[in-house]
From TrEMBL:
<dbReference type="InterPro" id="IPR001451">
    <property type="entry name" value="Hexapep"/>
</dbReference>
<dbReference type="Pfam" id="PF00132">
    <property type="entry name" value="Hexapep"/>
</dbReference>
<dbReference type="InterPro" id="IPR050484">
    <property type="entry name" value="Transf_Hexapept/Carb_Anhydrase"/>
</dbReference>
<dbReference type="GO" id="GO:0016740">
    <property type="term" value="F:transferase activity"/>
</dbReference>
<keyword id="KW-0808">Transferase</keyword>
<protein>
    <submittedName>
        <fullName>Transferase hexapeptide repeat family protein</fullName>
    </submittedName>
</protein>
<dbReference type="InterPro" id="IPR011004">
    <property type="entry name" value="Trimer_LpxA-like_sf"/>
</dbReference>
């Protein structure tokens, strides 16, 4: 669901995957290898939205702004399921946890991690490598090398997902029973779990 608005047509690199049940409107620029999940609303009507290369905006996220503001998701930003980004700048390789809310004029330095369900109030600025949690959210410590390595490796899975979706994703009719020859699931969970053990 891609819509123009007041002569602004979204610009989306061909390598990115935007789920057809996501909604991208107006003054939006999406770079390379970006994944946007179903239910995401990326609405560039009152201002601009720039999503740089290698970002992911997962299911049911909302990205919007007050008039005249440009929202920035810098390279490799990872926006977890259900998060809201409203008028903020998200630094390179940041992780925004599930159902977190990041409000207007927030500036996150590179490689910050925001905990799930956190609320960052308007006008807050955080230095690079801040671990931010709570409501209202506060920096509780520095992000370690191990934590950012875990985040970066996890984001690489999402950076490979657009190509996988283009190659393997298609609409289908459901089966009515489990087939005997059902394929085995890839062992991505074990990979992810091994990464968690680093931190």
């Amino acid at each position: 669901m891609i819509y123009s608005f007041k002569d602004f047509i979204p610009v989306i690199h061909e390598s990115s995957f935007i789920h057809p049940q996501a909604c991208v409107t107006g003054n939006v620029i999406i770079g390379k290898d970006v994944y946007v999940g179903p239910g995401a609303a990326i609405r560039g009507d009152w201002g601009g939205i720039v999503i740089e290369d290698g970002c992911n905006v997962q299911e049911n996220c909302t990205i919007h702004m007050f008039p005249g503001v440009t929202v920035m998701l810098k390279e490799g930003a990872h926006i977890g399921h259900g998060a809201v980004i409203h008028g903020a700048t998200i630094g390179k390789n940041c992780l925004i946890g599930m159902n977190a809310v990041v409000m207007d004029n927030v500036m996150l330095g590179d490689e910050c991690i925001v905990g799930a369900l956190s609320f960052i109030k308007a006008d807050e600025h955080f230095d690079a490598r801040s671990l931010i949690v709570g409501n209202p959210a506060k920096k509780i410590k520095e992000v370690s090398d191990e934590m950012i390595a875990w985040k970066t490796d996890g984001t690489k899975l999402y950076q490979s997902l657009p190509a996988d979706m283009k190659a393997h994703w298609q609409e289908c009719e459901p089966l009515r029973e489990v087939p005997q020859e059902r394929p085995a699931q890839e062992m991505l969970y074990q990979f992810w779990n091994s990464l968690k053990k680093r931190i």
